[in-house]
Structures are given as structure tokens and as C-alpha cells.
């Protein structure tokens, strides 16, 4: 998460990523390197966190728009 992201500080529940994008959040890589697999809805998105998601290119692009993030993709 970039510092200017509107998702920053929100929980997965309040961010409503699946509802808004259709993506499934598989894991969150915390800034310190810790991986949280199958994160709960109360997991908070913090600066430096990266989400590992499952979805189509269009869904990933929707998340980039939602988060105002340039986004990184390790896998197509």
C-alpha cells in the first residue's frame, strides 16, 4: 500500500475489495516480510503491505484504480 492510497488503514471488511472488484485476497505480505495467508476481514492494510490476489486482468486493474496504486504483478 502506498501512503496516498484510500485503502490505507482500512480493514479488508471496510475496503470491500471482493465486492468492488471481484478479486479474492489470498494473502497479505506485510512491510516487514511476514505473510498472512487467507487474511481475516479484520486485517488492516498498512503502508508497505502488498496484497496477493486472484482474479482477471480487468479485476486487478479495478483494484489499481480503487487503491490509486501503480501496482506490481508477479504473475500474469
Could you walk me through the main structural features you see in this protein, from its secondary elements to its overall organization?
Strands 2-1-3 form a 3-stranded antiparallel sheet, with no helix packed on it. By secondary structure, the chain is of the alpha+beta class. Strand 1 (24-29) and strand 2 (35-37) form a beta hairpin. It has one domain: Regulator of K+ conductance, C-terminal domain (Alpha-Beta Plaits), CATH 3.30.70.1450. Helix content is 26%, strand content 18%. It has helices at 12-15, 17-21, 57-67; strands at residues 24-29, 35-37, 50-54. The chain contains 3 helices and 3 strands.
Structural features:
76 residues, alpha+beta, Alpha-Beta Plaits, three-stranded antiparallel β-sheet, 26% helix, globular
- The amount of helix comes to 25-40%
Number of helices: 3
Overall shape: it is: globular
CATH superfamily: Regulator of K+ conductance, C-terminal domain
Biggest β-sheet: count, sense, barrel?
Answer: 3 strands, antiparallel
By CATH, the topology is Alpha-Beta Plaits
Rg of Cα set? 11 Å
Decide which structural class fits the backbone. alpha+beta
Alpha carbon gap, first and last residue? 20 Å
Mean pLDDT: 89
Reported CATH architecture: 2-Layer Sandwich
Sheet-strand content, in percent, reads 15-25%
Count of the separate structural domains: 1
So what's the CATH class? Alpha Beta
Quick rundown:
With 76 residues, the protein is an alpha+beta fold. The chain has helices at 12-15, 17-21, 57-67, and strands at residues 24-29, 35-37, 50-54.
Task: Indicate the topology.
Layout: H1 12-15, H2 17-21, E1 24-29, E2 35-37, E3 50-54, H3 57-67
Antiparallel strand pairs: 1-2, 1-3
Amino acid at each position: 500500500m502506498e501512503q496516498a492510497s484510500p485503502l490505507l488503514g482500512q480493514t479488508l471488511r471496510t475496503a470491500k475489495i471482493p465486492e468492488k472488484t471481484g478479486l479474492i485476497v489470498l494473502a497479505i505480505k506485510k512491510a516487514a516480510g511476514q505473510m498472512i495467508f487467507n487474511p481475516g476481514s479484520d486485517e488492516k492494510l498498512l503502508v508497505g503491505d502488498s496484497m496477493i490476489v486472484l482474479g482477471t486482468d480487468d479485476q486487478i486493474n479495478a483494484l489499481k484504480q480503487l487503491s490509486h496504486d501503480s501496482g506490481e504483478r508477479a504473475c500474469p
